[in-house]
Amino acid sequence: MRKRILGLLYQEKDFVSGEALSKRLGISRVGVWKHIQVLRKEGYVIEASNKGYRLISAPDLLLPEELAELDKKVYYFEEVSSTMDVARKLAQKGEEAIVIAETQTKGKGRRGRYWHSGRGGIYFSLILKPTINPSQAHLVNLLAGVAVAITIRKLFNINATLKWPNDVLINEKKVCGILAEMEAEADIVRFIILGIGINVNNNISDRIKSAISLREILGKEVSKKKLFLPLIKEIEKLQSFLNQPKVLVNRWKRLSSTLGRHVRVIIQNKILEGEAIDIDNDGALILKTSDEGLKRVVAGDCIHLR
Questions:
Q1: Which residues bind biotin (predicted)?
Q2: Is 23 annotated as contributing to ligand binding?
Q3: What is the pLDDT of residues 154-192, one digit of tens each?
């Protein structure tokens, strides 16, 4: 109901009477007033007079009411342990939704690492049910990286690049991390949880020297809603290429800052160094080493050396 009230208030620049809202929504004027109070508590500034109600401003929060145009159900939290954990429980119940949090107390990074999730960033997990073989699940990471980099480039004219295996960089500093977890049976993917964390308005470089936020780069606040909605649409558009690995891989390559670089890759207790010359259709990094020739690296931590 609150989504509908906001929709009507957004449509009108002037006041909308309580009676008009009551008739349009099929609820009492008291019911309208109660919903208005909830919206105010969420941060909406709504002016009230004898003429009715008028929306003055909306909070820069990814509330379900602000994302009404999305097809998926949105779960919003001020704080959770991890959006990945919440999304997994929903997916196991058959839901296909988006889980968003302002902060995470146990944000997940790759290899069980902690992802710093302070206020001001965008942290969400998207439940996907692609019709692909489990062996193709790695493509979701590539897809997400491409979607984030393209969206940042289009909106802010910033040269966002991709670092293997799944980071988005600006000026060689991490602005976004991506994590995908799959649940599958035999040759069927039940669901994939795609987790994305973007440093937007948080001062992340004060804590982590290798990271940066969009606000720190642009020198001004960034609307999270204006970033989030185009990003979701870009992800949805690119999903059509999950059955065309070459297309996704080629798009990733064009945005890569890893290929052509001398890199160090840490694989558990082994370290490889060489030139990153390619990634194959399985998302593996092809490394040209001086002593072992070509090495195919499926997973690891990549460090750009020069």
A1: 104, 174
A2: no
A3: 999 999 999 999 999 999 999 999 999 999 988 899 999
Q: Which residues contact 277 (CB under 8 A, 6 or more apart)?
A: 259, 260, 286, 287, 288, 294
Three-class DSSP category at 180:
strand
Q: Please give the Cα distance from 38 to 20 (Å, whole number).
A: 19
Q: Is 108 annotated as a binding residue?
A: no
Q: Kindly tell me if the per-residue pLDDT of 240 is higher than 70.
A: yes
Task: Mention every residue, 6+ apart, whose C-beta is less than 8 A from residue 175.
Answer: 152, 160, 168, 169, 198, 199, 211, 212, 213, 214, 217
Six-digit token pair at 64?
A: 């379900």
Environment class of residue 186 by beta-carbon count within 10 Å: exposed (0-12), middle (13-18) or buried (19+)?
A: exposed
Q: 272-276: long-range contacts at Cβ-Cβ below 8 A with a sequence spacing of 24 or more? A: 272/297, 272/300, 273/305, 276/164, 276/302
Domains of the chain: 2-57 (1.10.10.10), 64-255 (3.30.930.10), 262-304 (2.30.30.100)
